């Protein structure tokens, strides 16, 4: 089973100013959203999971590999990170070359890398763009290219950094399907995200961070039932959850469809 075990880690960029304090958490198979205000420590936490940073204290095990003992390149076969801004990730002249770069870098042959890259592009619906320059595509499609470049590497763990940024409704629906398909294939899917509606509709588990600590962790429905705590850390509830509260309903609704179906059954 794919997983990440975080044992009592702390981290600071400047001595005496902790960014993360005593984080202890285990990621198993549940698709998991990590939410919190800017400055809560989410991005730093994800960089530690990926091995881009090393904890000051404690240990992180990615599929049993202690990140303190392995390089980022060695960890790349186990864990992939889709950057928030695709322009920070894309540098090749064609989409297919861009998507093939990661697979070849972890040891796939040219033919294997090409095959996996075309499959990844087909999976996300832009295989017809394979020979185009990525910068001739929209920001939304460049984001999909950056996702394909990670999918083609076939890591058992994938982290998405703000995946819905710059995506319209159809783009979000496509992303939702990609993540749910990955989950069904046994991939551990994690995401830093500010889109609470997308969190409610997509992720099984939600972790709330505030001031470098985990303040809430559990099934997504349970997390969003803690209305006051969510507001205390300056986050908003999903729109369907808010609407249910405004209607005076005790249940915590994650989607508009749930709310509609509940009202139909009452009638």
From TrEMBL:
Keyword annotations from UniProtKB, A to Z: ATP-binding, Cell membrane, Membrane, Nucleotide-binding, Translocase, Transport
A molecular function (GO) term: ATPase-coupled transmembrane transporter activity
PROSITE patterns with a match to the protein in the record: ABC_TRANSPORTER_2
Compartmental location: Cell membrane
SMART domains found in the cross-reference section: AAA
Membrane topology of the entry: Peripheral membrane protein
One cellular component (GO) term of this entry: ATP-binding cassette (ABC) transporter complex
Domain ABC transporter: 4-236
PANTHER family: ENERGY-COUPLING FACTOR TRANSPORTER ATP-BINDING PROTEIN ECFA1, HEAVY METAL TRANSPORTER
Family note: Belongs to the ABC transporter superfamily.
Protein name: ABC transporter
């Amino acid at each position: 089973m794919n997983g990440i075990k975080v044992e009592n880690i702390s981290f600071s960029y400047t001595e005496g100013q902790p960014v993360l304090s005593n984080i202890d958490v285990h990621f198993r198979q549940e698709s998991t959203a990590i939410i919190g205000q800017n400055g809560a420590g989410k991005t730093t936490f994800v960089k530690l999971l990926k091995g881009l940073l090393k904890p000051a204290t404690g240990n992180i095990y990615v599929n049993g590999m202690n990140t303190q003992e392995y390089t980022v390149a060695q960890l790349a076969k186990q864990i992939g990170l889709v950057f928030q801004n695709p322009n920070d990730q894309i540098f090749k002249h064609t989409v297919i070359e861009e998507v093939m770069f990661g697979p070849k870098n972890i040891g796939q042959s040219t033919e294997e890398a090409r095959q996996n890259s075309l499959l990844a592009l087909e999976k996300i619906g832009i295989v017809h763009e394979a020979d185009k320059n990525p910068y001739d595509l929209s920001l939304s499609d460049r984001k999909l290219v950056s996702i394909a470049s990670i999918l083609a590497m076939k890591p058992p763990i994938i982290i998405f950094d703000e995946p819905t940024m710059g995506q319209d409704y159809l783009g979000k629906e496509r992303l939702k399907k990609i993540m749910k398909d990955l989950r069904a294939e046994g991939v551990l899917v994690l995401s830093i995200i500010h889109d609470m509606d997308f969190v409610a509709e997509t992720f099984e588990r939600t972790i709330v961070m505030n001031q470098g600590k985990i303040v809430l962790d559990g099934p997504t429905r349970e997390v969003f039932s803690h209305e006051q705590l969510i507001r205390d850390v300056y986050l908003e509830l999903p729109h369907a959850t808010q609407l249910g509260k405004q209607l005076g309903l005790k249940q915590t609704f994650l989607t508009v469809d749930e709310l509609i179906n509940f009202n139909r059954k009452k009638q």
